[in-house]
Amino acid sequence: xxxPFCAKTMIFGLLIVVTTVACRLTSxxxxxxxxxxxxxxxxxxxxxxxxxxxxxxxxxxxSVAAIDAKYTKELDDAKNxxxxxxxxxxxxxxRLRVNATCERVSDATRAxxxxxxxxxxVTADAEQNYFRLREQIATAEKQINGLQDYIRAIxxxxxxx
Length: 161
Description:
It is rod-shaped, with a radius of gyration of 44 Å. It has one domain. It is mainly α and 161 residues long. The relative contact order is 0.09. It is 78% helix and 0% strand. InterPro entries: I-spanin. This is Prophage endopeptidase.
């Protein structure tokens, strides 16, 4: 009878060994599963972060493109207005006036028979400089306004995040 007892003990011992191995294997695969799940979660967070960054950059690009289009159009309009004015002055349709006063030459110092000089007029160089200056002022104004709007738009996009 000692044999059946020994077989029962062996079967019981074998059952304990199999259970231990099964528990170890289960624990091993569970740990691997949890590690993979954590990695998957990290990758999902990274993907979300990158998507958020891309979305933010796209919003900034759209905002900047709209600002650029607006001020480019305004600048082109201002340059066209200046060019039209310059053509009108050159053709004589409009006159360029300068608010100036000329000192009257006294009768004693004036040569006899010489009439008073005609109204003050602008030289051709001064006229060109005037139009160039107007264009430069318009360009600077549009660039400054555009940069200010760009800064405001970037700040607004960053606040919405």
